[in-house]
Structures are given as structure tokens and as C-alpha cells.
Amino acid sequence: MNPQDVNAAPPSVTPSATGKKARRSFWGGGLVALVLLGLVGAAAWHLVRRAHDDQGRDRGPGGRPNVIVTVGQATVRKAELPVIIDALGTVIPATTVTLRPQVSGLLTQVLFTEGQMVSKGQLLARIDPRPFEQTLLQARGNRLRDEAQLEHARVMLERYRTLLAQDAIARQDVDAQAALVKQLEGTVLTDRAQEDMAQLNLDYTRITAPVAGRIGLRMVDAGNLVTSGASGGLGASGDAAGIATITRLAPIDAQFSVPQDRVGDIRAAQGDSAALVVTALDRTRQTVLGKGRFATLDNLVDTATGTVKAKARFDNAGAALFPNQFVNVQLLLRHVAALVVPVTAVRTGPNGDYVYVIDQERKVSLRKVRRGQASVELMAITEGLAEGERVVTEGGDRLQDGMVVQLPGARDGPRQHRPPRNP
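RE: above sequence
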């Protein structure tokens, strides 16, 4: 190679050739960008059109979305529906007795334990008997003295009558002696009454249970001075509350109020049945505390509340009912045969009560009904349904007339015809 060729300068490029090459590169890149933009636009148009076609195919009659809702169902059936009056009641003991001393004195013994069950006649407390024993002895001595005087007066009266028959004494003396006998008989009678009263007061120093039941808290301790109500005052122990209170727990009563409009139903039910069943429930209405018998209605209506007081009696063998306890009372009047559905199936709208009925194709239709007697869970339908029909119990707030629904337990939903999509 020629050395001169190596050091020679490169061939020069003219300005016109460079500008043509730049313009070709610019137009080529723009063409590619336009092609890509067109492809993106076509794809977007295809997707929007497809979604629009799907939306149109997924709409039912009237343009409503053909949404499948899962609902609960129940079958219309015949049942014996109980006619019940619900009320709030208060448990009251059949007998409540407050132990109060009937004589005044020093309380020497308290022989019961708080809360224990006591029997009638059981000794519960003692009051110091010594003052009453002395009073009894004094009364007995007065009686014996006056009885002796009476006996002497009767003997003298017989003698006076013998002398009067012999005309040896004046009649005035006989009459005076007879009056003395009458006077002493009255004195002896008074002495006997005073002796009996002293004996009764002595017996009152033994405080016994007048009824059987559960004894409450002790209000007085031994060593306190107690007074009787007849003494006109209270002792240092504060006898207003007594010594203790005994309540009879079995049987026990529940008092409640019923609306005055139901009095006729109750009286009619009493005529049809020997004893109406009453159930006592706890505050939550979940636990049955006892079943009893309806006892009676009060003889007047409370004008302030428009209710009538009623009473029921419970055996309370398990002591589940406690005095002054609040309970929910259910008075069973009778049973009626009717077509029933769950309470949740019946809805109320502007045109009245209605239900959604499910046909064989799982399509729901709105149907007007007339409700009857209801319980906590079931409601009687007197018009609008037939036995064996299926009704919606849950999910009805999302339904419209004519919609197809999904039922619990079904693996697949109702079949719908859809035209094939274009690839």
C-alpha cells in the first residue's frame, strides 16, 4: 500500500446527501408509530364492543340485569299454631311472713341459719321467759285465792237458804250472799283469763315458724331488746323489719298484665279448657323456668294502662323461680290449624303483605297474602298460598318479580341460553 494513501484525508460528504437520509429515518419512525396506534385502537374498540354485546345479552325482560341471587326457601305446610299472649310478669311468693316478736323482752337465742328451709312450727328464736313465768305464777295465785273465796261463799249461801226455809234468817241476807257468789264467780273468770294471757305471753317467748319456706337474712342478733307491735314503739333493735322473713317457694305465683281486649279470649278459653297452661321464661326467652296453670283475672281494668292483672301458679319443684324475679310469661289459649310459613317470608309493601313464590324453573313471582295468627317463628296465611308451594325466606330485599334465583345446596345455577360469541 502506498503510504500516501494512508495519510490521505477521508472523502467528504455533501450536505444534501445528509439531509435526505435524516428525512427518510423520520418518516419511517412515524409510520411505525401510526401502525402501533392503529392496532391499539382496534383492540380497544373490539373489547368495548364485546363488553357491550355481553351486557346486552346479560339483561332480561325490561332491560333489568339478569343477576342470580341466592335465597333461602321454605315450603308452605299445615301446622297447629299456638295462640299465645305474651306478657312481662313478676314472681311473687304464695306466702310471705315477717317474724316479729309478740312480746317485749331480751332476745336470748337465734336458732336458725340464714337462707335455710324451715318447717311450720320450727323453733327459730327465744326471748327471756323469766318475767313472763313470774307473771303467770302471780295470775295463777290470784285465781286460786279467788276460787277459794268463791267456794266459801257458795257454802254460806246454802246455809242461808236452809235458815231461810226455817224462817230463821231474813231474805235480804240470803240475797246478799247470792250476789256475793255471783261477784266472786266473775272474779274467778277474770283470774282465769289473766292466767291464760300470762301463759300465752310465756308461749310467745318461743318464736316459731308460722309457715314452711325459706328464711331470709337475720335482722336482729341475740342480746338485743325487742318489742312487740302492740307495745306502741320500737326497741333498740329496730323491730320495723322484724327478726327475719319467711317466703314460701313451692308453690309460687307469677303476676302479669294482659290487654283488656284479650279478656274475652281468656274467659272463652277458660270455658273450653279445664286449666290454661302458662310458661315462664327467663329474660332472654331462651330458658323455660317453669310451667304452671292460669289462676285468675283481677276484677277490674287499670284505667291508666288499659290492662287487667292476672295470676298464674307454678309448682316450682326445682326452685327455678325466685320471689320478685322478672320473667316473660306466655299464656297458651288454644291451637289453630292453618297454613304456615316462617315469619321472615312475609313482607309488607305499599299494597299490603306479600311473599315471593318460587316455581319449578326457580323463577320468583310476587304474590299478595293475608296474614293470620303469628308466633315467634311461624305465621299463619289465611289467603294467597297453597300447601306445598315454596316461598323465599331470605334475600327477598334483592328480588324483583320475574327474577331467577339460586337455591341453597344447588351446585349450578339455572341454565340460561346465550348466543355463541364471535371469535
